[in-house]
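Q: My labmate handed me this sequence with no annotations at all. I'd like to see what the chain might look like in three dimensions before we decide whether it's worth expressing. Could you predict it?
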Amino acid sequence: MPVQRCLERLAWPAVAAAAAQPGSTVLWPLGAIEQHGPQLPLATDVLFAERVADAVLAGLEPELPIWRLPCQCFGFSPEHQGFAGTLSLPSELLISLVVAVGSQLAEAGFQRLVLFNAHGGQIALLQVAARELRSRHPSLAVLPCFLWSGPPGLSALLPQPERREGLHAGLAETSLMLHLAPELVGPDRPRDGIADQAPPQGWSLEGAVPLAWRTADLSQSGVIGDASGADGSLGEALYGRLVAGWGELLTNLLLSDWPPTAG
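A: Here is what I predict for the chain of 263 residues:
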């Protein structure tokens, strides 16, 4: 990624000039330090957020007004507590962090903040933080995004039932890590966390009528899904669609006046 897109590497006059550009946008990658089964590192979500964000920003036209903050590594991961290494912030602390950082970006004159989140367990929390931030700074558009939602074609690469049941450290995440950092992937390929007792009809772990599940309720290994078929070629295909999809989405955003704000 070009150094000039790294907000923390700029001197303050350059930051002020960046914020003053029409449509000035800051992208903030967010991950988590949490267990990802016996085969993946604690920083899996951090690595995914950083690598995809950097590849996307490197491919954007240089005149587009977007800059990146350093990744927020610690997240909200209470569902994974009980597995060694999981480090979870309290929900109110993460909300306060997003509001504090976003408030100062708004005061500097930036017009958009994209929360580029790779941890599924904090999607709803970041949506709450985004609304709290927006209510305090109506001139700042806040877009809480999830890495795996938005780019088209991702689900077509994953077979059923993994597409539906692979919630954590399964086929998709293990394959993506095999492509991005194979040296960090251990030899185990668990199939775990898929309950023998199916939920009542219409209910599910996630979806329209979800459950506030804890990993320890479902899995001994920390995996919820089936990592047995993971391979780097699938990871390469997933990575390609993630980068291309987010590149198009961000380009469309940066070339627009959307969303409306009360600036």
